[in-house]
Amino acid sequence: MKKIVALPSMECEFEIDVQGSETDQNFKGIFKYKRLTLGKRMEAAKMKCKLSEDLKTLPDDVLMYNEMVSELRYGIIEYPDWWKNSNFGLDLYDVNIITALYKEIQNFENEWEEKVYKNKEEKNK
Predict the structure, then answer these.
(1) C-alpha separations of 10 from 21, 35, 108 in Å
(2) Does 57 map to a domain?
(3) How far is CA 59 from CA 55, 63, 93, 110, in A?
(4) Taking the CB of the first residue and of the last residue of the chain, which one, N or C, has fewer CB atoms within 10 A?
(5) Looking at the domain assignment, is residue 84 inside a domain?
(6) What is the pLDDT of residue 53?
(7) What is the spatial distance between Cα 123 and Cα 120, in angstroms, rounded to a whole number?
(8) Is residue 117 part of a domain?
(9) Total domain count for the chain?
Protein backbone atom coordinates (compact mmCIF):
# COMPACT_ATOMS: atom_id res chain seq x y z
CA MET A 1 0.00 0.00 0.00
CA LYS A 2 1.34 3.43 -0.97
CA LYS A 3 1.87 6.06 1.66
CA ILE A 4 -0.16 9.22 1.06
CA VAL A 5 1.83 12.35 1.76
CA ALA A 6 0.05 15.67 2.14
CA LEU A 7 1.19 18.50 -0.07
CA PRO A 8 2.59 21.64 1.54
CA SER A 9 0.35 24.69 1.72
CA MET A 10 -0.38 26.27 -1.66
CA GLU A 11 -0.38 29.76 -0.11
CA CYS A 12 2.09 32.04 1.60
CA GLU A 13 1.95 35.45 3.19
CA PHE A 14 4.78 37.96 3.11
CA GLU A 15 5.45 41.61 3.78
CA ILE A 16 7.45 44.07 1.75
CA ASP A 17 8.81 47.47 2.68
CA VAL A 18 10.63 48.76 -0.38
CA GLN A 19 11.72 52.22 -1.50
CA GLY A 20 10.91 52.88 -5.17
CA SER A 21 14.08 53.15 -7.23
CA GLU A 22 12.66 55.84 -9.49
CA THR A 23 10.04 57.68 -7.41
CA ASP A 24 11.60 57.26 -3.93
CA GLN A 25 8.09 56.42 -2.74
CA ASN A 26 7.83 53.83 0.03
CA PHE A 27 5.82 50.73 -0.85
CA LYS A 28 4.81 48.70 2.15
CA GLY A 29 2.24 46.03 2.79
CA ILE A 30 1.25 42.45 3.44
CA PHE A 31 0.54 40.18 0.49
CA LYS A 32 -0.89 36.71 0.18
CA TYR A 33 0.12 34.55 -2.76
CA LYS A 34 -1.51 31.34 -3.94
CA ARG A 35 0.18 28.97 -6.36
CA LEU A 36 -1.33 29.22 -9.79
CA THR A 37 -3.78 26.52 -10.80
CA LEU A 38 -3.79 25.35 -14.41
CA GLY A 39 -6.55 27.86 -15.18
CA LYS A 40 -4.70 30.73 -13.50
CA ARG A 41 -1.47 29.80 -15.35
CA MET A 42 -3.41 30.01 -18.62
CA GLU A 43 -4.83 33.42 -17.62
CA ALA A 44 -1.35 34.66 -16.72
CA ALA A 45 0.02 33.38 -20.04
CA LYS A 46 -2.79 35.14 -21.95
CA MET A 47 -2.09 38.38 -20.08
CA LYS A 48 1.62 38.11 -20.88
CA CYS A 49 0.79 37.62 -24.57
CA LYS A 50 -1.57 40.60 -24.56
CA LEU A 51 1.02 42.82 -22.86
CA SER A 52 3.72 41.70 -25.28
CA GLU A 53 1.35 41.77 -28.26
CA ASP A 54 3.37 38.74 -29.33
CA LEU A 55 6.11 41.09 -30.57
CA LYS A 56 9.49 39.38 -30.88
CA THR A 57 11.21 42.76 -31.04
CA LEU A 58 10.39 43.81 -27.49
CA PRO A 59 13.46 44.20 -25.29
CA ASP A 60 14.18 41.21 -23.06
CA ASP A 61 13.61 43.23 -19.89
CA VAL A 62 10.11 44.24 -21.05
CA LEU A 63 9.26 40.61 -21.83
CA MET A 64 10.52 39.63 -18.38
CA TYR A 65 8.45 42.34 -16.66
CA ASN A 66 5.38 41.27 -18.64
CA GLU A 67 5.83 37.74 -17.31
CA MET A 68 6.37 38.94 -13.74
CA VAL A 69 3.36 41.27 -13.70
CA SER A 70 1.16 38.56 -15.22
CA GLU A 71 2.12 35.98 -12.61
CA LEU A 72 1.72 38.52 -9.81
CA ARG A 73 -1.69 39.56 -11.12
CA TYR A 74 -3.10 36.04 -10.93
CA GLY A 75 -1.12 34.73 -7.96
CA ILE A 76 -1.46 37.53 -5.44
CA ILE A 77 -4.85 37.11 -3.79
CA GLU A 78 -4.60 39.61 -0.93
CA TYR A 79 -2.78 42.91 -1.11
CA PRO A 80 -2.67 46.50 0.14
CA ASP A 81 -4.76 49.19 -1.55
CA TRP A 82 -1.77 50.74 -3.33
CA TRP A 83 -1.26 47.48 -5.27
CA LYS A 84 -4.85 47.50 -6.55
CA ASN A 85 -4.72 51.26 -7.18
CA SER A 86 -1.57 50.79 -9.29
CA ASN A 87 -3.53 48.51 -11.64
CA PHE A 88 -1.79 45.53 -10.03
CA GLY A 89 1.64 46.93 -10.82
CA LEU A 90 1.04 48.10 -14.38
CA ASP A 91 0.87 51.77 -13.41
CA LEU A 92 4.04 51.76 -11.28
CA TYR A 93 7.22 53.54 -12.32
CA ASP A 94 9.43 51.56 -9.96
CA VAL A 95 10.48 48.26 -11.47
CA ASN A 96 12.17 47.22 -8.23
CA ILE A 97 8.74 46.88 -6.59
CA ILE A 98 7.73 44.30 -9.18
CA THR A 99 11.02 42.45 -8.82
CA ALA A 100 10.75 42.47 -5.00
CA LEU A 101 7.27 40.92 -5.13
CA TYR A 102 8.28 38.43 -7.80
CA LYS A 103 11.32 37.38 -5.78
CA GLU A 104 9.06 36.60 -2.82
CA ILE A 105 6.79 34.35 -4.86
CA GLN A 106 9.74 32.64 -6.54
CA ASN A 107 11.28 31.92 -3.13
CA PHE A 108 7.98 30.37 -2.04
CA GLU A 109 7.71 28.32 -5.25
CA ASN A 110 11.28 27.03 -4.83
CA GLU A 111 10.68 26.11 -1.18
CA TRP A 112 7.39 24.43 -2.11
CA GLU A 113 9.08 22.30 -4.76
CA GLU A 114 11.88 21.34 -2.34
CA LYS A 115 9.30 20.19 0.21
CA VAL A 116 7.44 18.14 -2.39
CA TYR A 117 10.68 16.58 -3.62
CA LYS A 118 11.71 15.80 -0.02
CA ASN A 119 8.26 14.24 0.65
CA LYS A 120 8.60 12.08 -2.47
CA GLU A 121 12.02 10.85 -1.32
CA GLU A 122 10.67 10.02 2.15
CA LYS A 123 7.63 8.30 0.63
CA ASN A 124 9.87 6.05 -1.49
CA LYS A 125 11.99 4.90 1.49
Answers:
(1) 31, 5, 9
(2) yes
(3) 10, 7, 17, 27
(4) N
(5) yes
(6) 87
(7) 5
(8) no
(9) 1
- Is 45 a domain residue? yes
Contact between 83 and 35 (Cβ < 8 Å): no
Task: Note the pLDDT of residue 117.
Answer: 81
Q: Write out pLDDT tens, residues 33-90.
A: 999 999 999 999 999 999 988 777 889 899 999 999 999 999 999 999 999 999 999 9
Query: Concatenated DSSP letters for 46-81?
Result: HHHHHHHTT-TTS-HHHHHHHHHHHHHHHHEEE--H
Nearest to 16 by CA among 120, 102, 117: 102
Alpha-carbon span 76 to 105, nearest angstrom: 9
Q: What is the pLDDT of residues 104-118, one digit of tens each?
A: 999 999 999 998 887
CA neighbor of 72 nearest in space, from 85, 58, 56, 90: 90
Give the pLDDT of residue 4.
Answer: 62
d(CA 76, CA 15): 12
Output the pLDDT for position 98.
97
